[in-house]
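Researcher: Structure prediction, please.
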Amino acid sequence: MLNVNLAEKQLILFDLDGTLVDSAADLFRAMNMSLNALQLPLVTEAQVRVWIGKGTSIFCRSVLEHLTGEVDAAQHQLLLATFLNIYNADPCVETQLFDGIQAFLDWAKAQGKTLICVTNKPEVPARMIVDELGLAGYFADVIGGDRFEERKPHPRQLLHCADYYQAEKSQMLMVGDSSNDVEAARRAGIDCIVVSYGYNHGENIQDCRPQRVVDDLRELLA
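Model: Predicted structure follows.
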């Protein structure tokens, strides 16, 4: 198990969905509204929790694969556009912070850490959620999955942060909930801690051999 010296970490990168916030209820609501608009069968929140985390396009693809057994390109684009229109209009109805997040962010801010939200979610709804939950003052930037061509598990977003903030890899920490976060951090050459309560595509988070798993970020402050 990795014992991270938080005093050495000046640049802390956080995943959003499943790490900072539980957004599954709103993603579920928007998806079923989208499916209803397209006269397609509905899905369950439990299914949505397995499908989210890899970006909106893959989320829509997973839904269609489940419903129809295949993915028609035109139907995929229609569902994606419909979903983004509905979700982006109101992405933070039931979304809320996980336990321990506020305390950890308060601690990090008091310590003068630079905090970045790095998510595969499109940047517009990601920023809306951060603003709605009163977190904008904590983050120097919110980097959505549509800012660069690549998204996690590609390390592009993480490497951008290293370059932009001129941080040594040893000064950086990724905090996430899924194999995407672990792989991105591994490829970027930075430490990574994952939370046990996230989504992780229905897989056991231990399967990707993370450096450390915590049930609550306050464990790191003990």
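Model: The chain is about 40% helix and 15% strand.
Researcher: Thanks, that helps.
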